[in-house]
Design brief:
Blueprint: H1 2-25, H2 31-45, H3 51-68, H4 76-91, H5 95-108, H6 115-127
Helix pairs in contact: 2-3, 4-5, 4-6, 5-6
Length: about 150
Amino acid sequence: MRGTDRVTIPSRLAAALAMLLPGCVQLPQSPDSDYRQAFEKALAVAQCESDAVQGMWAAYGRWYAIASSITGHRRTDEAAALLRQGEMFAIIGCPGVARASYATLLQRFPEPDLTALRESARAALQALPPPPPPPGMPTPVAPALQRPAATPI
């Protein structure tokens, strides 16, 4: 009997652990996958100011922080993601998110091998409509065009 107990207890324990461990042992998702999912969600929501956009920026921040801590890591993917992010948000009519994406690329990626991406971001930034004035500031009014006075014939 005693020999049977030794064999059964470990198998019961193994069965219990097999049921519990899958939830505990799951590896965290890679930061770029987390960002891609958050980016897709933000695009699907298609709202310029939403929790999905905030989640996208948070996921990008985590990805950037991890990549920046790796010595010698070429950050081309992170910079290209910002450019793509800006382009997509400009297309869906969110110039503020697009502007922030391009500006972040310009600020965070000074490496010489990323010059082409920075130039693309700079050109795209200039193509966006100007940002709205801050709250409380009067909206500038364009001067009215005046017709020249009619000359008598």
